[in-house]
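Note to self: the last two entries modelled the partners one at a time, which told us nothing about the interface. This time every component goes in together.
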Amino acid sequence: MKEIILKTESITKHFHDPVEFKVLDEISFEVYKGEFLTVIGKSGCGKSTLLYILSTMDTEFDGELFIDNQNISRWKQDKLAAIRNEKIGFVFQFHYLLGEFTCLKNVMIPALRLGKLPYDVIEEKAYQKLELLGLKDQALKPSSKLSGGQQQRVAIARALINDPLIIMGDEPTGNLDSMNTQNIFSIFKELTQEFGQTIIAVTHDQDFAKASDRTIEMQDGKIINQNYKFI
Amino acid sequence: MFVKKHPVNGEVAYTYIVSNKKLTMVAALGVTLGIAVFIFMNSMLAGFDKSSSEAFFKSIPHIRIYKDDEISKPIVNQSGKNIPVIVNPKVVPSNNTIVNPKQVIQLLKNQSDVVLVTPQLTVGIFYNNAKTQISGRAIGILPEEANQMFNMESYVVEGNVNNLKNNINGILLGSGVAAKMNVREGDNISITSSVGMTKVMKVIGVFQTNNSVVDKTTAYVNIAFAQQLMKKNSSYITDINVNIKDYNKAKAYAPELAQLTNYKAEDWESANETYMAATRMRAIIIRFVSISILLVAGFGIYNILNMTVMQKINDIAILKAIGFNGRDVIRIFVSQALIIGLIGIVFGVLFASIMVAVLQNYYVGGDIGYFPIYFKLSNFLKGIFFGFAVTFLAGFIPARKAANIDPVSIFRK
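The predicted structure of the combined assembly is written out below.
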C-alpha cells in the first residue's frame, strides 16, 4: 500500500487580470511518498501556477489541497510558512539566492529559521549538502558571485537542508549542463529511494522527465494524462 | 532537547546593514543630526530657564509671605433683599505688619519642604546729596540669611556683604545709586526715611544686578536699622521670604503656607506672570522645532528603508518561500531600522554632549556670563526615547509593507 503524501481535489484557479481566464480546471491527483514525479506541458498550460499552489504560497484557489494528510486549503499564512519551512523544499526558476549572503549562509538560513538544531550542527550539515552538489569550495563566496548554474545548485542544497518531505522544483535543472543535470538527477533518485523524500518537478526537459518515476501531462489547465508514456 | 535558536532575523537585518554601509550611514547621520539638535535645543531651553530663574532668585524668594491689604466689607448683607444699600469699600487702615513674626518664622522653619526663612522690611527712603534728593528704597535684611537666600556675594562688586552684619550703620548700595551719589566703599551717605528720620550711613559695599531699576534705587541695610528708620520696634516685619527645596513646586506649595500662617503667600511664578508666559511660549517653540527636526530625521529613515524594501523585494519573496512569515519579515526590517537608530543615537548623544560642553565654556559676557546651557539627564533620556520611537515607526511602516508582499507575484515576473 503506497502512502499518499500530497493530494489535490478539484483545484480550480482563475486569473482576473487582464481578462477572466481559467488557468487551472479541476486538477485532482495524488502523489505518493518516495515518488519522483514530473509535470510536463506546453508553456502557459498552468503547470507553474499549479506548483505555486502546491507549494502553499498561492492560496487563492478553489478545491482542496492535502499535504501530509492535512487539509491546508484554508490555513493562515503564518501556519503555511511554518509548513513550507519544515516540510517543503523549493527550487525556483530564476529566483534563487539572497545575493548578499555566502552560499553557506543561504543554505543554512531555512534551518536557522526552523531552529531545531544547534548552529554548528546546521553549519556542518550545510557543508555536507554543498559537497553533495559539488560546491564545497564555493561555500564562503557571496552567492551573487557564482554563475547561474552554480546558484541553482546552491538553491537545491538549500531545498535539502531541512530534510523536507517534499521537494518542489520549477525547472530545477534548467540552467545546468548535462553533467550537472545527471548529477542532480541521481541525487533526486537517491533521496526518493533511500530517504523516502518526494519530488515534484515541473520541467521541459524530456530526458529528465523520462527518467522520473511518473510524469503528469498538462494542457490548457487540465491534466490530460496522469501517467504519461514516453515514446 | 532544548536548542538555543539562532537569531536569524537579526542576522539577516545585520547583513543588509553591513552590505549597504553607505545607505546605513546616510540614514544614521539623519538620526544623529536629529537627536543632536533635539538634545541640544532642550539643553539650551533648560539652561535658559535655569539662568533666568537664577537671575530672579537674586532678588526675590521662592515664596513671599506678607499681609495683604484688606478691603472693608459692608456691614449689611445685601443679598436677597430689595433694599438698596450704598457701600463704599475702602482699604482697611491697618498695619501691614506680621504679628509675632518670630513665631511665624519658627513655624515656617519647621516645615519639611522649607529650606530657608528670613524676614525682610522694605522702607522708602531718600538719598541726600547736598540739596538733591534721590528717592529709593532700603531693604532691611538679616545679612547672613539673605546672603544664603539670594547669593548676594555673587553680585556684590565692591566691598563685602558680610561687613553689613558687623556694622549696624552699614549700607550696601546699588551701583546706580553709588554712581549718582558719587560714593564708594568706606564713604558716608545721608539718607532720610519716609517717616522723616535722617541717618548717616557708612557704605560697606556696592552691588550690581544689571537690572537698572534695582541698581538705581535699592540699598540693603540691617533689618534692625530699617526698623529704626520706620521708627518701629524690633517685631515690625512686613515680609517673610521663604525658599523651598524645589522652586518649581512653589506654585503648588504657596497655598499650604498661606493656610498655615494665615497670611498671603505669593509664589515667584504668580508674582512674575508676564515673564512666565514668555517662558512657556519659548518652551513651546523650542519643543516644536526640536520635535520637527526629529520627525524629519524619521522621514529620512523611512525613505531609505522604503527603498531597501523595494530593492530587496526579491529577497523577501525568497525568505517567505523558505518559511519566513510576515512577523519575521517585519522583525528583519524593524531591527534594521533600530540598528540604524542606535548608531544614530549613539553619535547624536555624543555630538550633543560635545556641543553642550563647548557652549558651556563659551563666554557671552554681560549679565549672562557663560552661555546658559547645561547637561540635564532627562533631556538626554528624552532624546534617546524619541529617537527610538521615531526610528521604530519609520521602520515599521515599510516593514509592514514588506510583510504583505506576495511571493508568487514576484516569482511570476
